[in-house]
Amino acid sequence: MGLFGVAAVLQALATSRASDVPVLDPRLLVRLARQPVFLLALTANLVGFALHLLALQRLPLFLVQAVIAGSVAVTAVLSIRVFGVGLRRRQWGAVALVVLGLLLLAPTATGEDRVEGGAGSALVLALAVAVLLAVATWVRHVPGPLGAVLLGLLAGAGFGVVALCGRLLPELGPDLLTSPFTYVLVVAGATAYFVYSAAMQRGTVTTATAAMVVTQTVVPALAGLALGDAVRSGFVPLAVAGFGLALAGALGLARFEAPVVPAV
């Protein structure tokens, strides 16, 4: 969670310095790759993802994705230092909601059962990635915060596919090379990261990230429950409350608008 929050702020800094590149233009990634701050963001994301993948191998999607949603709180707090804008009482309340929600969720998960995708699941997920990229290409011209929200939602869907693939992967080992979910995961991750960078071109880091959190959290959590993820017996109300509070807090931080750092 912490690594993803740090990476979002670093990525926003890098993206602000490539404002002359059209939204969703592949040249954006070339421009970003030339910046040390972006390489730091990418490194933080890769390390965070490795830890994320380990968690997905052991815990239900609803818990893991709610924790990832908490990265919005880390992003908002770090933005105080990086962008020079303070959190108001309402935003601190949203941070507290995220923390409380995660505390409530912690004891609700069972880490015993693995889930498996049915025949054709990898193909369905690959098609979903293709569709979201096509839709992102269509909405890339929507200006301002609405464009950031739409692209953020699509990026979150891509990261949701990543989470689903991570949950459906076999045990870490040689079988990963033969699993189709491994390759869908890589393509979905690259696509989502690209669209997320485009969302930051349209709006602030918190707007893009809060929108991304919605689909990144809710879609894989519901899919995981459908696939067989379980809540500890008797803890369903606590899990629902915790998930709702964590998500509500993350969305509440969408109103925290940090100014974009000008290109240098």
Estimate what percentage of residues fall within beta strands.
under 5%
How many individual domains?
Answer: 1
> How would you sum up the global shape?
globular
Return the string of H and E elements: HHHHHHHHHHH
Distance between the termini: 29 Å
Biggest sheet details = none
Task: Estimate percent helicity.
Answer: over 70%
The low-pLDDT segments are 257-264
- Mean pLDDT over the full residue set: 78
Give the structural class: mainly alpha
How many helices does DSSP assign? 11
Rg value:
18 Å
Notable characteristics:
mainly alpha, 11 helices
Describe the structure.
By secondary structure, the protein is an all-alpha fold. It has one domain. The chain contains 11 helices and no strands. The chain has helices at 2-16, 27-33, 36-56, 61-69, 71-83, 89-105, 121-139, 144-168, 180-202, 205-227, 236-252.
Write the SSE topology:
Layout: H1 2-16, H2 27-33, H3 36-56, H4 61-69, H5 71-83, H6 89-105, H7 121-139, H8 144-168, H9 180-202, H10 205-227, H11 236-252
What's the gist of this structure?
Helix content is 72%, strand content 0%. It is an all-alpha fold and 264 residues long. It has one domain (2-255).
